[in-house]
Amino acid sequence: MNKKAIGNYRRTREILDQYGIHAKKGFGQNFLTDLNVLNGIVQAAHITKEDNVIEIGPGIGALTEPLAKAAGEVIALEIDTDLLPVLDDVLSPYDNVKVINQDVLKANLPELIQTEFSDPTKPIKVVANLPYYITSPILMNLLASQVNWDAICVMMQKEVADRLTAKPGTKAYGSLTLAIEYQMKAKTAFGVNRRSFVPAPNVDSAIVVLTPRKQPLAVEPFDKKRLFSLIRGCFAHRRKSLWNNLKSLLTNDKDKLAIVAEVLEQLAIDPQTRPEQLSLDQFIQLANAMHAREI
Ligand code: SAM
């Protein structure tokens, strides 16, 4: 056990006391104090000296430290100004880390990569113990950012991890699953007990690794925005059938619903099925067929 590591429980306590830091709930602050988990995250992300790493929310640097040891360069975005002097001190042995006081949801990531990494052409990985209150917006921003992520390896609450990796037909399967599947392959690396954090959150957690899809989509959507508004509409009432969700989505417009009924029949999709039974390909086929019939 490395007693000097920032993520060592006693060292974390000392740092928090020394700087008078109290975890802020509003920023989702739960500091990791389990060295096995911290090293496990770095291993799950397969970090090497060839990698540029973006860390979201370094906290007091528990994960930043093993990342600095393993990666080429690390850029860490932290929203909480109170943590900056701490990070400045505890990370001073590492000259390949830059902490930027920035809200990740407002960051221009492609620009940041170009300006902050000495070689922006190297593989870019995101590694983080995410602030749980904004897990989905962060993931959506990362996916929308047009950056070719080599991997996104992030800790989140287990329930959200289950949604990311869910299979069709299960309770956890939904619009978040499909938004991720559209671009990436999601895999849970390992689960993490709530006792690995200070303070302990109310839920258990898991590390999810997202890597770019190797297989292209079987069918490309005509219009990605419309595909995802159809998907969100179809999952608006999970306990209702696909047909009843489509009825609400199309505000009961009889003409449009008659066309959708034909489209569903052509695609051999049972209108009485539940939305979670449909695969991403089926949603794309449905969205494309509706688009072609001007719905
Ligand atoms: N990485 C540290 C660890 O594992 O111990 C801290 C993780 S803590 C769960 C989440 C961190 O994200 C906190 O440091 C918090 O201040 C930071 N944070 C919260 N919202 C943020 C935002 N919008 N942009 C950047 N950082 C944020």
From TrEMBL:
One of its GO terms (cellular component) is cytosol. SMART domains: rADc. PROSITE patterns: RRNA_A_DIMETH, SAM_RNA_A_N6_MT. It is an enzyme of class 2 (transferase). It holds the Pfam family RrnaAD. InterPro entries: KsgA/Erm, rRNA_Ade_diMease-like_C, rRNA_Ade_Mease_Trfase_CS, rRNA_Ade_methylase_Trfase_N, rRNA_adenine_dimethylase, SAM-dependent_MTases_sf. SUPFAM superfamilies: S-adenosyl-L-methionine-dependent methyltransferases (SSF53335). Residues 37-214 form the Ribosomal RNA adenine methylase transferase N-terminal domain. It is found in: Cytoplasm. Its EC number is 2.1.1.182. NCBIfam families: ksgA. Belongs to the class I-like SAM-binding methyltransferase superfamily. rRNA adenine N(6)-methyltransferase family. RsmA subfamily. This is Ribosomal RNA small subunit methyltransferase A. It comes from Limosilactobacillus equigenerosi DSM 18793 = JCM 14505.
